């Protein structure tokens, strides 16, 4: 048998595609934006099941609790029958393994996102070699949107129309009025 280059040896050892491809799209979603929803919609077409998972991060002080963010997500992703909502603490690869997910979906808005996401993808590959990371470019209409920027603009009285779903904007309005009442 002729000597085969190492690349062919790797191809032979790759595992088979699972019968059903489950992906995890993890983030803080504080709040969910149309940029997030764009990735969810596109991801729902690519994968048999997509689980949108909120990281329980005790070091951050979110505007909305994990439970409130899960409610908001359920409200807006209900139109996608193969999309579920969950939350997790700890390592993302452990969460993915617990759900038999083989893909981590990540969004890239700009080159600055790529550097961070690449580091995370390589660490996740090291921790969970059977889990692949798929990067999706943000739709150019949403490439500038971040949850942090939405909260900042809204808090300063700017319009966020077209950046978040109406139900999310209504929740932001209620939360901001509650914060202002407490602060006065």
Task: Describe the protein's architecture and organization.
- With 184 residues, the chain is an alpha/beta fold.
- It has a domain at 18-144: HUPs (Rossmann fold), CATH 3.40.50.620.
- The protein is built from 7 helices and 5 strands; from the N terminus they run αβαβαβαβαβαα.
- It has helices at residues 6-13, 34-46, 66-77, 92-98, 111-127, 147-155, 166-183; strands spanning 22-27, 49-55, 83-88, 103-108, 132-137.
- The protein has a 5-stranded parallel sheet with strand order 3-2-1-4-5, sandwiched between helices.
Q: Let me know the average pLDDT.
A: 90
Give the structural class.
alpha/beta
- Tally of DSSP helical segments: 7
CATH class of the domain at 18-144: Alpha Beta
Beta-strand content estimate = 15-25%
Please give the alpha-carbon distance between the first and last residues: 81 Å
Bulk shape: elongated
Remind me, CATH topology of the domain at 18-144? Rossmann fold
Order of helices and strands: HEHEHEHEHEHH
Strand arrangement in the largest pleated sheet: 3-2-1-4-5
Q: In CATH terms, what is the architecture of the domain at 18-144? A: 3-Layer(aba) Sandwich
Q: Superfamily at the CATH H level of the domain at 18-144? A: HUPs
């Amino acid at each position: 048998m002729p000597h085969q280059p190492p690349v062919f040896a790797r191809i032979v050892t790759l595992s088979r595609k699972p019968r059903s491809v489950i992906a995890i799209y993890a983030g803080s979603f504080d709040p969910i934006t149309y940029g997030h929803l764009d990735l969810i919609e596109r991801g729902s077409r690519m994968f048999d099941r997509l689980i949108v998972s909120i990281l329980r991060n005790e070091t951050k002080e979110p505007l909305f609790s994990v439970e409130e963010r899960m409610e908001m997500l359920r409200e807006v992703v209900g139109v996608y029958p193969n999309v579920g909502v969950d939350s997790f603490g700890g390592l993302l690869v452990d969460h993915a393994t617990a759900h038999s997910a083989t893909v981590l979906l990540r969004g890239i808005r700009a080159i600055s996102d790529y550097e961070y996401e690449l580091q995370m993808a390589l660490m996740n590959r090291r921790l969970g070699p059977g889990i692949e990371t798929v990067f999706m470019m943000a739709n150019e209409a949403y490439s500038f949107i971040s949850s942090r920027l939405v909260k900042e603009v809204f808090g300063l009285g700017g319009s966020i129309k077209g950046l978040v779903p109406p139900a999310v904007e209504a929740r932001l309005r209620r939360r901001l009025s509650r914060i202002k009442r407490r602060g006065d």
